[in-house]
């Protein structure tokens, strides 16, 4: 059991200091008193602990003062290096205006095979994060670490961890638990980064595609101008009409492909007329309009008899077909396999016998 000793305490508001970290801390009057008391001692040590709003901190870091000096804006800061994790005890008396506390240094735990395995897993995740940031100097430093506790305490520098998470690192004595927490947090961060990178890549590719299409259209317009040709008549109008129309997605893609062909074709090309006719047909079709089928068989037979003389066998077959459709609809069998339930009727015969009008 380590012996307790008295140290001046510096409460840091914006920084969670872990062992091994070298950080600057801005000094207010109370912090300056702690630094002065530490500098007056032989060890030049003090305790750095987080300033908490909800409770008194249970742990801090025994730190050594490396440098004290001015910072931008005229204030004063101290550069400290965290040395060892320590448990904070009761207040103690000491010289100067600083607050002194009894601290007990936390001894290092024995490194087991489990801790080594956890450290290796965390190091792999940490290196993946650093490689995404091209932080090669830090990668070399992390690779040089062999102590699992020291590796876990590098999390104090991690920008993706909150102060609450870093405070939990400070207060967690068990190295294995620290490493498990860091593995979970770093895995979540990596997954979030990968999703964000994928979204950013998709957005960038979309922007590049749009810019490429704009550049190619500008070049195509310049080539036509040099050849004395104008834009194909109505090409811009067709693109706007297709984009504004309420078309199914596959139909929209096909229509935009045909608009692209129209934009590349010249007015003298016979293909331009075919494309315009096809686009006009597609745009005029009521893709999202549905009508109710008429199931009045007597009315259907009356229409057939009024329009055609004779042809009783053909009329009977048509009415029979309508009757079957009606009965299937009544039984909920109108859709089979995602397609309509109707059969294909074939009216065969020489020209002029009424096949088209019957249909």
The average pLDDT value, as a whole number, equals 81
| Contiguous helical run count | 12
Order of helices and strands: EEHEEEEHHHHHHHHHHEEH
Q: What percent of residues adopt helix (DSSP H or I)?
A: 40-55%
- Supply the helix-strand structural class: alpha+beta
Structure, described:
By secondary structure, the protein is an alpha+beta fold. It is 51% helix and 16% strand. The protein contains twelve helices and eight strands. It has helices spanning 29-40, 113-132, 136-144, 148-153, 163-171, 175-227, 235-244, 249-264, 270-284, 297-307, 312-330, 355-358; strands at 4-12, 22-26, 45-50, 59-70, 76-92, 100-105, 335-336, 339-340. The strands form two sheets. The protein has a five-stranded mixed barrel with strand order 1-3-4-5-6. A two-stranded antiparallel sheet has the order 7-8. The chain is elongated, with a radius of gyration of 40 Å.
Give the key terms.
359 residues, alpha+beta, 5-stranded mixed barrel, two-stranded antiparallel ribbon, 12 helices, elongated
Topology:
Blueprint: E1 4-12, E2 22-26, H1 29-40, E3 45-50, E4 59-70, E5 76-92, E6 100-105, H2 113-132, H3 136-144, H4 148-153, H5 163-171, H6 175-227, H7 235-244, H8 249-264, H9 270-284, H10 297-307, H11 312-330, E7 335-336, E8 339-340, H12 355-358
Parallel strand pairs: 1-3
Antiparallel strand pairs: 1-6, 2-5, 3-4, 4-5, 5-6, 7-8
Report a brief summary of the structure.
This protein is α+β, with helices and mostly antiparallel strands and 359 residues long. It contains twelve helices and eight strands. Helix 2 packs antiparallel against helix 3 and helix 8 runs antiparallel to helix 9.
């Amino acid at each position: 059991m380590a012996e307790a000793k008295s140290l001046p305490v510096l409460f840091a508001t914006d920084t969670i200091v872990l062992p091994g970290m070298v950080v600057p801390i801005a000094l207010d009057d109370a912090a300056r008193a702690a630094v002065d008391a530490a500098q007056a001692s032989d060890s030049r040590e003090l305790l750095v602990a987080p300033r908490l709003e909800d409770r008194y901190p249970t742990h801090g870091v025994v730190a050594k003062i490396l440098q004290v000096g001015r910072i931008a804006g005229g204030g004063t800061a101290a550069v400290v290096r965290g040395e060892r994790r320590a448990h904070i005890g009761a207040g103690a008396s000491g010289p100067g205006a600083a607050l002194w506390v009894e601290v007990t240094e936390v001894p290092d735990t024995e490194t087991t095979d489990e801790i080594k395995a956890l450290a290796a897993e965390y190091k792999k995740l940490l290196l993946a994060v650093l490689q995404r940031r091209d932080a090669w100097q830090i990668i070399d430093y992390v690779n040089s670490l062999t102590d699992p506790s020291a590796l876990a305490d590098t999390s104090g520098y991690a920008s993706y961890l909150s102060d609450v998470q870093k405070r939990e690192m400070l207060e967690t004595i068990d190295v294995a638990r620290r490493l498990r927490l860091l593995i979970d947090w770093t895995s979540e961060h990596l997954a979030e980064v990968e999703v964000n990178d994928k979204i950013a890549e998709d957005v960038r590719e979309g922007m590049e595609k749009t810019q490429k299409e704009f550049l190619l259209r500008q070049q195509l317009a310049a080539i036509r101008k040099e050849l004395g040709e104008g834009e194909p008549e109505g090409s811009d109008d067709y693109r706007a009409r297709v984009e504004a129309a309420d078309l199914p997605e596959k139909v929209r893609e096909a229509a935009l492909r045909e608009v692209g062909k129209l934009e590349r074709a010249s007015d003298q090309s016979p293909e331009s007329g075919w494309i315009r006719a096809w686009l006009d047909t597609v745009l005029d079709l009521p893709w999202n309009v549905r009508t109710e089928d008429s199931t009045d068989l007597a009315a259907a037979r009356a229409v057939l008899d009024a329009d055609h003389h004779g042809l009783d066998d053909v009329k009977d077959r048509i009415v029979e077909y309508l009757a079957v459709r009606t009965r299937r609809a009544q039984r909920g069998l109108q859709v089979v396999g995602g397609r309509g339930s109707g059969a294909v009727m074939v009216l065969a015969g020489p020209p002029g016998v009424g096949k088209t009008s019957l249909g």
